Amino acid sequence: GEYVIAGSTGKAYIYKRTDTSWSKVDEKTLGGSEAGFGFAVSITTSNFIVGNPNKKVSSKSNAGAAYIYQY
């Protein structure tokens, strides 16, 4: 099947197409200070990446982060 990723504020969703229908196969959510999670998304044959440009790293605000998951 084919896969697609969709991001929204605080969430990322993975859908798989089988024949003519799509079904959700995974969902990632980060709350609290992770408000930018889902701003940018990408997918490969076995991984998906969810970006958060607002992530605070150490003492640097809006340093950004990318989260890599396998599906």
Overview of the structural elements:
The protein has 71 residues and is mainly β. 0% of the residues lie in helices and 56% in strands. Strand 1 and strand 2 form a beta hairpin. The relative contact order is 0.24.
| Assembly form of the protein | single chain
The whole-number mean of residue pLDDT values reads 89
User: How many extended strands?
Assistant: 6
What is the CA-based Rg, rounded?
A: 13 Å
Percent of residues in helices comes to under 10%
List SSEs in N-to-C order: EEEEEE
**Count of runs of 4 or more consecutive helical residues:** 0
Question: Distance between the terminal alpha carbons, to the nearest Å?
Answer: 13 Å
Instruction: Label the structural class.
Output: mainly beta
How many strands, which pairing sense, and closed or not: the largest β-sheet?
A: 3 strands, antiparallel
- As residue ranges, the low-confidence spans are none
Strand content: over 45%
Topology:
Layout: E1 2-8, E2 11-18, E3 21-29, E4 40-43, E5 47-52, E6 65-70
Antiparallel strand pairs: 1-2, 2-3, 4-5, 5-6
Which keywords apply here?
elongated; 3-stranded antiparallel sheet; mainly beta; 71 residues
Short recap of the structure:
With 71 residues, this protein is mostly beta strands. It is built from no helices and 6 strands.
